[in-house]
Design goal:
293 residues; alpha+beta; Hsp33 domain; CBS domain Like; six-stranded mixed β-sheet; five-stranded antiparallel β-sheet; 10 helices; 33% helix; Heat_shock_Hsp33_C; unfolded protein binding; 33 kDa chaperonin; disulfide bond
């Protein structure tokens, strides 16, 4: 049974809240890439953030997030597509860093300073791309800053990944709070005060797998209703056919070089899946498509 999900709520104060529960998909990413704890936290937060940003379920909105920081993790690249699916990778998945003074994983140092680029796309609309500065490297603050500076949306984002002693993911998730037209400054201040009292989101999600206690505390003092919820998954779009098309797109001289090897092995950056073609299979592929080599 899939427990990862996104739940959308709206309140009588014209405030929208989305909650993401993402432990399973973060654990799958950890297994695929053999992530270190700090890499799990960085990638898990970014994937959760992408799913929250791609929250337009009816229009199947997609979001691509690219952190280009100067920290030891290198680039973080995440794609959320069809609203309910996500994939991602970091350049250096095995990075180890000392914990911060408060005992937390030092995601900010791992990411470093640089730029955050976000691309939004839907099946019926042109893509929209924009970028902002990485303000902390802690992911949530950076996404909130992006929404405010690039999309003029005042938002509160909280993202949390709890890594167990054996490096597995104990819990993961986040929430996104946004003001709708008609929201008053007083209501926003009250919600912000509620959020300040919540504490670490992972503390809630360890026991609140459906997000009910979390939403009741975020919107304490307001009437609210659930709009809809849907499961979310770790899923890659790679396939044998896609890899073969990549081989067919190579220059003729590169194809000749590949045919000199006993086999060709390709690895998907997003999920770590290995694809192998033996020399005879590669030659047959080129011959079948009438490609000159």
């Amino acid at each position: 049974m899939v427990t990862d999900q996104i739940i959308h709520y709206t309140s009588d104060a014209s405030i929208r809240v989305s909650i993401a529960i993402t432990r399973e998909l973060t654990e799958k990413a950890r297994q695929c890439h053999q992530l270190s704890p700090v890499a799990s936290a960085a990638l898990g937060r970014t994937m959760t953030g992408a799913l929250l940003l791609a929250g337009d379920y009816k229009n199947k909105e997609g979001v691509s997030i690219l952190f280009r920081g100067d920290g030891p993790l290198g680039t973080i690249h995440v794609d959320s597509f069809d609203t309910d699916k996500v994939r991602g990778f970091v350049d250096h998945p095995h990075v180890q860093l000392p914990l911060k003074a408060n005992g937390k994983l030092d995601v900010g140092t791992a990411v470093g300073k640089g730029t955050l680029a976000v691309t939004r796309f839907t099946p019926k609309q042109d893509t929209y791309s924009s970028q902002s500065q990485i303000v902390s490297g802690e992911i949530a603050e950076d996404l909130a800053y992006y929404l405010y500076t690039s999309e003029q949306i005042s938002s509160t984002i909280s993202l949390g990944i709890l890594v167990d002693r054996d490096y597995t993911i104990a819990t993961a998730g986040g929430f996104l709070v946004q003001a709708l037209p008609g929201a008053t400054d007083e209501a926003l201040a009250e919600v912000e005060n509620n959020i300040q009292k919540i504490g670490p989101i992972t503390t809630y999600l360890q026991h609140d797998v459906h997000g009910e206690a979390l939403i009741s505390n975020i919107l304490k003092g307001f009437s609210y209703k659930e709009l809809y919820r849907y499961p979310v998954y770790w899923q890659c779009t790679c396939s044998q056919q896609r890899m073969e098309r990549a081989l067919l797109a190579l220059r003729a001289e590169d194809k000749l070089l590949l045919l000199q090897d006993p086999q060709v092995e390709m690895v998907c950056h997003y999920c770590g899946q290995h694809y192998v073609l033996q020399q005879k299979e590669l030659a047959a592929l080129y011959n079948k498509t009438n490609m000159e080599v």
